[in-house]
Amino acid sequence: MTQTENFVLLNKEIHPGETKTVNLKIAQLHTMTELKIPIIVSYSTRKGPVVLLSAGLHGDELNGIEIVRQMIVEKINRPQIGTIICMPLINIFGFVGQTREFPDGRDLNRVFPGSANGSLASQFAYNLMEHIVPLVDYVIDFHAGGRARFNVPHVRVQEGKPELKEMADAFQAPFLMYSDNLGGSFREACDLAGVKYLLFEGGKSLDINSHVVEEAIAGTKRFLHHLGMLKEKFEVPQVVKPMICIESSYWIRADLSGLFRSIVPYGKYVEEGETIAWITDPYGFVETPVLAPNSGYIINENQGPIVYQGDAIFNISTRLKE
């Protein structure tokens, strides 16, 4: 069905068939330079869902920023029906400083739904929930692991939510992990607002990984095709292997400090007792193997060369869901 009304965002009108950049102005740098968060809105001539593609809640998670950027460049964000809103970079402060947090030290993804008069991070969260999310039906939010901790490309949803499982099935990432919402997260705030939210994780901070980017773009294309939003000129990527669903996982921690060398690639299935890494000293006296405590898939791999006793070095699946 053809739509004739304009799409309105932050008091700016986007006409049917138009793509427009709308700037969200919230704060300034300490130099008094005004910060603007560009929001790219593509409004089809035909009625349909509204999808938000967001990244950069953590300013050092560059993979997500690159994923959304490429979708804009390739014009995947221009839908056959409905509307696609792209926010490639939300936490500009963190991006400038190459850090996860805001200048006030807060994690933006722990202060939702925010407050109009709260901390700087809280005000950002509030504006996102007040002005953007109420217009949206679906959110795909792109994230990465921490520094040196590489996440295998996967999506996360809460168990017992069939509408979110349907999103994940349409996306078809290599892995699906069931996990509860974290308090104060964007994911929790969207859930409470009745907006369907899919969390994508892949790669590590301060890094752009082409494999992760390709997996995310392929999954997004499949999801948009599922909604009838992907234009026919784009090929729908075929799924090579069915998505593996993980019900629970476990962090393997270093028994001692030293030089760390992983010998298994992320995403690999390992057997209980298999050597998956070595921890050594600098002098050639100590070589200690790290053994898999159970059979499962390696979901997260510490790619740092040095570890301390107690550091998380692998996340391994402990139970799969049929």
From TrEMBL:
InterPro entries: AstE_AspA_cat (IPR055438), N-alpha-Ac-DABA-like (IPR043795), N-alpha-Ac-DABA_deacetylase (IPR053138). Keywords: Hydrolase, Metal-binding, Zinc. Pfam families: AstE_AspA_cat. SUPFAM superfamilies: Zn-dependent exopeptidases. Its cofactor is Zn(2+). Residues 48-227 form the Succinylglutamate desuccinylase/Aspartoacylase catalytic domain. Coiled coil: none annotated. It comes from the Bacteria. This is Deacylase. It comes from Moheibacter stercoris.
